[in-house]
Amino acid sequence: MTFYTIALNFEDGVTRFIDCKQGEKVLDAAFRNKINLPMDCSDGVCGTCKCRAESGAYDLGNDFIEDALTDDEAAEGLVLTCQMVPSSDCVLAVPTTSIACKTGHQKFSARVTAVAPHHDAAIVLELEVDAAAPAFLPGQYVNIDVPGSSQNRSYSFSSAPGDRRLGFLIKKIPDGVMSGWLAGAKPGDRLDLTGPLGSFYLRDVKRPLLFLAGGTGLAPFLSMLEVLARAGSEQMIHLIYGVTRDLDLVLVDALEAYAARLPSFTFTTVVAEEASDHPRKGWVTQHMPAEVLHGGDVDVYLCGPPPMVDAVRRHFDESGATPASFHYEKFTPNAPAREAA
Ligand code: FES
């Protein structure tokens, strides 16, 4: 029996993964997995079960009326889960909260296997889970409880889904609660995690990609690049990695390794600091040549602090170079929440 994995990405950022048998409708598979997706008629009449298919291959089904799902909606990727039959792994955006569907966050624990500081800029944290590798989409994050406190912090996976070893790239913050804990952390220490979370994840790759990373916003792109390197990609992928100081440029060797494994991948680095000797100084928007925008036929992914996200959006608005899609995640180091679109 063939099973497909369906990621249900809820409005509150929670993602749950269910298995769907070949030929099974998503609504039935979700119910079997104890998740009550929105539904009313389950006959393709009311449209209550409408979701957006973000990626994957599927049959829409034949047994629904135009009032429930129009041709235009179907062309935009909307589906009726009471009719949709997947023919590959899929990601569905569900327009309601996980709580409304009688599900919620997943918790798991992991032990520290390595803590590697990079000057005063960042810390590479490696964990290993005891049980099965947690499912997540490349680009997503988890909340990690800070031991000995009531606080948690959000960090994107820098490792690929399916690995029991989890990687994170964490900004080092003076007096930060997680930075403080990591300063004394040692292999074997345990951490509790909640997730995966977030709507910032790699969609189906249908056109060239432009990745824009600000500081430790590099982490989700490392996860995406690992997935792309394993699968191979015909599409051009370019990453612009912007930081404040020279010392903030970490894991450049990892990017060089991806460029060697994935011939369609290139990257450039940019340093903002005036005193830097770096060949490209300033902001990522000042080092975004027209060719990486492919005349607008490009999917742009950006992960960085709020001013960087706003500057890039302004740049696209002012230059008229509207990309085919623009996915971003704003993060504020030392704050528990993230914002994505
Ligand atoms: Fe009514 Fe799917 S539940 S159309």
Task: Summarize the SSE layout with pairings.
Layout: E1 3-10, E2 15-21, H1 26-32, E3 50-55, E4 58-59, H2 71-75, E5 78-80, E6 85-86, E7 90-94, E8 107-118, E9 122-129, E10 141-145, E11 152-156, E12 165-171, H3 177-183, E13 190-197, E14 209-214, H4 219-231, E15 237-243, H5 252-261, E16 265-271, E17 299-304, H6 306-319, E18 325-331, E19 338-340
Parallel strand pairs: 1-7, 14-15, 14-17, 15-16, 17-18
Antiparallel strand pairs: 1-2, 3-5, 3-7, 4-6, 8-9, 8-13, 9-12, 10-11, 10-13, 18-19
Helix pairs in contact: 4-5
Features:
341 residues; Ubiquitin-like (UB roll); Elongation Factor Tu (Ef-tu), domain 3; 19 strands; single chain; globular; six-stranded mixed beta sheet; alpha/beta
What is the terminal separation in angstroms? Answer: 36 Å
Compute the number of structural domains. 3
Q: What bound compounds does this protein have?
A: FE2/S2 (inorganic) cluster
Tell how many strands the DSSP assignment holds: 19
Structural class: alpha/beta
**Can you name the CATH architecture of the largest domain?**
3-Layer(aba) Sandwich
Strand content: 25-35%
| Average pLDDT number | 94
CATH fold-level topology of the largest domain: Rossmann fold
- Individual helix count: 6
Low-confidence stretches: none
Q: Element order, helices and strands?
A: EEHEEHEEEEEEEEHEEHEHEEHEE
Percent in helix: 10-25%
- The Rg value, from CA coordinates, equals 21 Å
CATH class of the largest domain: Alpha Beta
Give the full name of the CATH homologous superfamily of the largest domain: Nucleotide-binding domain of ferredoxin-NADP reductase (FNR) module
Shape: globular
Lateral strand order in the biggest sheet: 11-10-13-8-9-12
Biggest pleated-sheet summary: 6 strands, antiparallel
